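Much of the work behind modern protein science is quiet bookkeeping, done one molecule at a time. The protein below has been through that process, and both of its lines are reproduced in full.
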Amino acid sequence: MGFEQEALQSLRETVHGSKSAMWHQVEGAGKGEPFVLRHLLKHGTQTPSRLAEALHASSGRISALLGSMEKKGYITREIDDRDRRNILVSLTPKGTKQAKRDRDDIDSVVRWIFSQMGERRTREFVELSQEFMTYMSVCKPGAPRPSAEEVTAAFAAKREHSEKRKAEASSAQADG
C-alpha cells in the first residue's frame, strides 16, 4: 500500500471514527436550522427556493424547516411586495441572536483548539487545509483527474482571491 492509500485510510478513520460532540455541532451547522440561520445572517433575506438550493434540500424539507423556525420566532415569512408570487424569509432579532450565538460558540472552541496546537502548527494546518481544498475544487468524482494546467489555474485563482481579501481587509482597517 502506497502512502496515498495509507493517508486516505487514516483520514477516513479520523473523520468517521472520532466524532465528538463538537464535531456533531459543526456538522449540524451545515444542515437544518443552524445552516438556514447562518445563511440568512450572511446573505440576508432569501426566498425558500434559494434556501433549498443552498441547502441542497427539497422544497418540502425547506417548508417544514421554515415552519419550525417560524414557530420558534427565528424567522418571518412575508409576501414579496415586488412580486406577490414570492415569499421572502428574513431573520427576526431572536433569529439573528441565535445565529450569532451558534457561530460564536463554534468559533470559540476552534480558537481554543488552535491555542492548544500553537501558532506554528495552526498556520501549517490552515495552509495545508487550503492546499487540500484547492485540489478538491478541481476534482470531480467519476471524471478524469485535472490536468496540470487546471491545477495551476486553481492555485492562481486561490492566490488572487487571497490577495484580494487581504487588500480588502487592509482597506477596511485603514478606514476603521
Q: What stands out?
A: The mean pLDDT is 88. The chain is about 75% helix and 5% strand. Strands lie at 75-79, 87-91.
